[in-house]
Amino acid sequence: MNRSSSLSFSLLLLMLWTASDALAEKKPAPQVIVAEVREADFVDRIEALGTLKANESVELTVNVTENVTAIHFDDGERVEKGATLVEMTNREEHALLREARANLDEAKRQFKRVKRLESQGIEAQSLLDQRLREVDTARARLSAIESRLADRLIKAPFSGVLGLRNTSVGALVETGDTITTLDDDSVMKLEFAVPSTYLTSLRPGLSIQARTRAYREQRFDGEVKVVDSRVDPINRSVVVRAVIANPQRMLKPGMLMTVELLRDPRKTLLIPESALMPKGSEQFVMRVSGEQHLVDKRQVMIGSRRPGEVEVTQGLEAGEWVITHGTEKARAGKPVRIKGIEDSGAPISELLKPADEKALQGGT
Questions:
Q1: Which of 344, 335, 286, 295 is nearest to 315 (CA)?
Q2: Is the pTM of this model over 0.70?
């Protein structure tokens, strides 16, 4: 090839490159979807399984061997504290009670008579002391009879709901037999195990959210009441007890619930997970700023996650904008066109903050 031919070929290549650059300059900026870096409330969630218990629960048993003479409750009935549920009394106890009361009344009359005479100097002090002992003896005997009667009356120790009745009128019950159960279900206790690695962040007052398959759409809120003082040496977990208000009596003892323990509540920065660009163990985002919508690549430090969002602990500030869709087309230092904004209906021109373009040009 001669020199003139070589020169012509070089000119042709130069023209092609120039045309290519011109076409590249006319090529529109890629379209992307962005989201705002926002500050919001955030908590770490620990999931566990727990079992419900009544606030107070007892099996009502008998202390004597006796026949049931009266039953004053039905299955599943709600009762108040002190209500008489079962009677196992008979005529002998009532007769002894009347006798004991009469003896006490008579002992009191004799004591008052002797005391009046003793004050007049007619009777000796020793006789007054004897009458006082008789009053104390009669009062003690009356207390013993009343105690025997109390053993034959089963009363509700607290307000709550009764379970199934296990006896009938006329039945002979023996010491230790269970008549029914009583549960205070106004407040429920939920116990669940948490790995001991979270022990430092567990404390009374933490919020919980619980659900059960019986009420799939219902969420029950409560708070931690106490953290057990011991760690299980086998599974290295600690038992946490929370309380849940149960005003509608929907929850029952023994129900299985899934629990989310909300620990370390805080204000933090959040971005959509789709904005992350992982590279090895590092995480990057494409930030958009300025009136020209220029892009720069930012390394960020992330914390906890929740569905669809991730916590940013370093690298971004509230109010900045990151690309969530179209990151593969965006280039650092180049502009982009905003096609849409996630979770916002405001115009991009009103929401994006101007930035130093020189700083953006130096981003990588």
A1: 286
A2: no
